[in-house]
Structure formats: structure tokens, C-alpha cells
Design goal:
Layout lengths: L17 H10 L14 E4 L6 E6 L2 H9 L4 E8 L7 E2 L2 H6 L5 E10 L22 H11 L2
Antiparallel strand pairs: 1-2, 2-5, 3-4, 3-5
Amino acid sequence: MHFPRLWLHMSERYKASDDELRTRRQLTNRVGNELSRNEQETGIQFFGDADRFQITTYRPTMVRSLLRHAYAEIERLYLGVPEGQNKRVENPSEVLTSEARPEVEGVRATLPLGTLTVKGKPRTKDQHSGIITTPEEIEGLSEAFAD
């Protein structure tokens, strides 16, 4: 099953459908950890007139966060498969239906530029997992401080 792009009329921003998010959440269980730490690279890029940025990562914690992020448009998954097989898949549901049950090694996605922030002060821990926050995590934080 290939998921159609869901565009929000008010903000014209891509947001994954509930079906796509369910599939992507299932894929988080397939994220592997076979790559060495030196191979777990991450790259972020965007152009001057862009309203979205592209992120490619092989860091397992970041791959899982991007798969769960409703505003992340998944362009490609990179799989850990034997040589000679296709390591790139553009449709996440293909991975779930594959009899080979490949692990997801990496992901390339785009997100709205408005989700990218460079802070003025560093976090207390320089962990890669702290770079990406999903909308659900933000809602949980706001509920904790609501009164």
C-alpha cells in the first residue's frame, strides 16, 4: 500500500495520515543497530528558498523518531539486506510486507523548516536522541505544565 500525500489546507504542510503513521510506528521495531557508531552519520540540508529541510540519518534513535514524526515526509528507507538486493525503499509498507524481514538502517525525510531550531544554549547532554522531538512528545510536555 502506498500512502497518498495528505496536505493540510490551512497551512499547506504535509502531515502523515493515521494509516501511514501506524505503518511507520510498526517499522520502529525493525530499526537495526548493525552499523558501527562511525557509520551512523546524519546530514541536514536545505536551500535558501526552501520551506522544508532534508535529513538523512543512520542513527537508530533518530530513525525511530523520524518514523514517528507526523510532519516527516519519508522519502526513502535504507535497509540492511544482503549484497545484491535493493537497499533503498521509497514505500515504508514494502518493508513490513517483505518476507525477508529486513532491518531499517537509515531514513531520508523532509520536515517543515519551522521544526528546525538551533538553540542559543546547548542541552545538558549531547545525545543524538535529543535532537528530534515528535509532536506527541511536545503535547505531553505541554500537558505536564498545564494547569
